[in-house]
């Protein structure tokens, strides 16, 4: 979901970007106009996320899933890394990383169908691991870290923020790497942002691994080693500017807290629907719930769709319902959903 003002601006620029005589889609990535666009996108994202100067910002292709491999390929030195298994994307990243070294699960909530993220005390991180990996917001299960985990000294913290980036302030300096597919909170599908501390670059065995996944090659060429996802980068810049104009990530955090607490407050106040995620792990971006009856859940998905609300059907691995309330979702969208939920509960209890 993208903010309406961003889509309007895309429409206005579509045929003739700022008097250039062409659409951004048609531009050469080597052109002067496009160079201005990618530089502006990076500068805006740096301001909005307060990214320190000793971090590189890369705009890559291949989705977050490609980074599941790129992370161990770029970061392993001793060959060891630890993962917190909190859902299907963290588990997929772990599985991919196992192809490259000695991986260890520092935590897993698989036995309770990934209904919570770990507390700091529950983490069993090896002190000689190269990095410790988390999925900051578990899109499918509706859980989110409410704190920045602290690995032992010397172990880099790596986070997949695909589904909660730009939704709250983040102290980037606590992380070695933050990365995110753009398509939830930052832009259209097709761009993946990697934010990496400079001193972590340069360990990639270029002689045996593909050049496309080497972060240093991409950093040295300002994400233009080959053709970058040009249009997506342009839209991402507009979204970052929208966040800035709305009051920045602090304002996004307030909006996210308001939206999600409206839903959780309603869910906690009744007994027709049950929440899925443990209370202290609840996501502000993806709210998961169910009626406890698969047929009713299916009916809910169908009727909510007919009422103009799409994508409320939960992921197949969890079932039930999932309300994805990313940055662009207005409060009115949540009010409409709660009204629908009340009416549905009344009609089906
Ligand atoms: N990580 C998280 C948290 C996600 O939500 C997703 C997709 O929904 C992915 C990774 C996979 O992203 P992609 O489809 O860009 O590979």
From TrEMBL:
<dbReference type="InterPro" id="IPR015424">
    <property type="entry name" value="PyrdxlP-dep_Trfase"/>
</dbReference>
<feature type="binding site">
    <location>
        <position position="160"/>
    </location>
    <ligand>
        <name>pyridoxal 5'-phosphate</name>
    </ligand>
</feature>
<feature type="binding site">
    <location>
        <position position="183"/>
    </location>
    <ligand>
        <name>pyridoxal 5'-phosphate</name>
    </ligand>
</feature>
<dbReference type="GO" id="GO:0008483">
    <property type="term" value="F:transaminase activity"/>
</dbReference>
<keyword id="KW-0808">Transferase</keyword>
<comment type="pathway">
    <text>Amino-acid biosynthesis; L-serine biosynthesis; L-serine from 3-phospho-D-glycerate: step 2/3.</text>
</comment>
<keyword id="KW-0028">Amino-acid biosynthesis</keyword>
<keyword id="KW-0663">Pyridoxal phosphate</keyword>
<keyword id="KW-0032">Aminotransferase</keyword>
<dbReference type="InterPro" id="IPR015422">
    <property type="entry name" value="PyrdxlP-dep_Trfase_small"/>
</dbReference>
<dbReference type="InterPro" id="IPR020578">
    <property type="entry name" value="Aminotrans_V_PyrdxlP_BS"/>
</dbReference>
<comment type="similarity">
    <text>Belongs to the class-V pyridoxal-phosphate-dependent aminotransferase family. SerC subfamily.</text>
</comment>
<protein>
    <recommendedName>
        <fullName>Phosphoserine aminotransferase</fullName>
        <ecNumber>2.6.1.52</ecNumber>
    </recommendedName>
</protein>
<feature type="binding site">
    <location>
        <position position="139"/>
    </location>
    <ligand>
        <name>pyridoxal 5'-phosphate</name>
    </ligand>
</feature>
<feature type="binding site">
    <location>
        <position position="89"/>
    </location>
    <ligand>
        <name>pyridoxal 5'-phosphate</name>
    </ligand>
</feature>
<dbReference type="InterPro" id="IPR022278">
    <property type="entry name" value="Pser_aminoTfrase"/>
</dbReference>
<keyword id="KW-0963">Cytoplasm</keyword>
<comment type="subunit">
    <text>Homodimer.</text>
</comment>
<dbReference type="InterPro" id="IPR000192">
    <property type="entry name" value="Aminotrans_V_dom"/>
</dbReference>
<feature type="domain" description="Aminotransferase class V">
    <location>
        <begin position="2"/>
        <end position="337"/>
    </location>
</feature>
<keyword id="KW-0718">Serine biosynthesis</keyword>
<dbReference type="Pfam" id="PF00266">
    <property type="entry name" value="Aminotran_5"/>
</dbReference>
<feature type="modified residue" description="N6-(pyridoxal phosphate)lysine">
    <location>
        <position position="184"/>
    </location>
</feature>
<feature type="binding site">
    <location>
        <begin position="64"/>
        <end position="65"/>
    </location>
    <ligand>
        <name>pyridoxal 5'-phosphate</name>
    </ligand>
</feature>
<comment type="function">
    <text>Catalyzes the reversible conversion of 3-phosphohydroxypyruvate to phosphoserine and of 3-hydroxy-2-oxo-4-phosphonooxybutanoate to phosphohydroxythreonine.</text>
</comment>
<feature type="binding site">
    <location>
        <position position="30"/>
    </location>
    <ligand>
        <name>L-glutamate</name>
    </ligand>
</feature>
<dbReference type="InterPro" id="IPR015421">
    <property type="entry name" value="PyrdxlP-dep_Trfase_major"/>
</dbReference>
<feature type="binding site">
    <location>
        <begin position="226"/>
        <end position="227"/>
    </location>
    <ligand>
        <name>pyridoxal 5'-phosphate</name>
    </ligand>
</feature>
